[in-house]
Write a structure and sequence with these properties.
The protein has helices at 11-22, 59-75, 96-109, 149-162, 211-218, 287-298, 359-370, 397-407, 413-423, 427-431, 450-459, 465-472, 481-498; strands spanning 2-7, 27-31, 46-47, 80-88, 119-122, 138-147, 166-169, 171-179, 182-189, 194-205, 227-238, 246-250, 256-262, 266-270, 274-275, 312-321, 336-340, 347-352, 443-445, 448-449. The protein is globular, with a radius of gyration of 23 Å. It contains 13 helices and 20 strands. The strands form three sheets. Strands 3, 4, 5, 6, 11, 12, 13, 14, 15 and 16 form a ten-stranded mixed β-sheet that branches. Strands 1, 2, 7, 8, 9, 10, 17 and 18 form an eight-stranded mixed β-sheet that branches. By secondary structure, the chain is α+β, with helices and mostly antiparallel strands. A hairpin with a 3-residue loop joins strand 13 (256-262) and strand 14 (266-270).
Length: 504
Amino acid sequence: MYDVVVVGGGVNGCGIARDAAGRGLKVLLLEKSDLGSGTSSASTKLIHGGLRYLETYEFALVREALIEREVLWRAAPHIVWPLRFVLPHHRGLRPAWLIRLGLFLYDHLGGRKKLPACASLDLKRDVSGQCLKDGYKKAFEYSDCWVDDARLVILNAMDAAEQGADVRVRCELTSANREGGTWQVSFRDHLRGQDHKIAAKALVNAAGPWVGAVLGNRIKQNQEASLRLVKGSHIVVPRLFDHEKAYIFQNSDKRVVFAIPYEDDFTLIGTTDVDYQGDLDRVEIDPSEIDYLCQSVNEYLAKAVTPDQVVWTYAGVRPLFDDGSDSAQSTTRHYVLDMDHPAGEGLLLSVFGGKITTFRHLAEEVLGKLSVVFPQMGPSWTGKAPLPGGDMDMDQRAAGAQVLGERFAFLEPATARRLIRTYGTRVSEILATAETIEDLGQHFGADLYEREVSYLMDREWAHSVEDVLWRRTKVGLRLNPDEIANLEAWMAAHRRSTGASSAA
């Protein structure tokens, strides 16, 4: 008998499982694929308030997100860090006074403490103007935070497990029925080819874009899912500028596109907003979206970006609450928590919508609703608790890389930096007593070694090459097909030798 079964291993599901387990509840988390393999690893990688949502008067949403920025930065300073955004003034679009007003609100709505305030820039003097067309003379600069979104999911799942949650990856809910005041839940373990049945007092449907399918096909509820599926796509190109600031470019369609420094040698460009009705398990960027993103940044950049420069793309479907808006871009990013709790029956709570920035606050609200069934559970606790590897000062990530490089002198500076910003203080579990580069085991290419891959498989539920190269890390940007094939063969042998298909 579990207290809560959470369906969905995205950022919301893992955040809910973590919060619930930390309050003393017995939790089972079911994820049919890999953790964060859907929408949660396909974001623009930002912890932000959403500057453009001020135009649609969504002040409460922006305020909630702005407050969460520094909460998440404090909880995981190895994967969350401040980033300055440059907004060039486009004379044909929003007037300068409106931008100044928006940035003033952005600075003051959310209790900003450590992030720098907004400022005006002279693009003829500031480094950020060097890659822009000559026509752009003025810009505005403000602060938000960058996040490694897929690792944010993993860290929440790790903390949930360490708090006592039972995290089952590649285990798919097959049915759930109310019976005798509880839920009778069946699920399929795809890795082991086994079927299981358990009981629970409450069921949380946090399946993201699949929330409606879970309701209709697995839980057999007649409730209509008020969901609007919107695809957002991104492209990655070789680095476009030499500084560490990001850009937010305004478009004539009233959307914005970001150009963000990415993995040292690349630039991330995104995103699009396109209504989606296709296969949720096969979401890909369309050629028209690649053209749109290139054209959007080419309005500003002195040197044009072309589709043939794209080295990687990814796309995800945002499960937005359908508020009846005319366009995908104007659909609210507010989340809705729908609770169904007939007298004497098991509780069902479904999560519609949400942003990666507000996942922790969403989880707190979910636990608040679950308190009607579990009045004995502990108080909220995640607001001041670090995520795994995040028990360091908010400003110590760079210093940590230097210390790591001094302790393990055989590491290249770039490798030390990557390991610190991936694992934080948990990097000691990977490097342990290594004294030479050979102690890290087989080399798979770039700076990826056997000891790191073993850690990811044994401690972070990694099973496939894609799990390692594109979610636990982004080393896939640097490996060639032969190196990837060698890694795949080694992982298969490791699974056989350990007798485990996923771990943690």
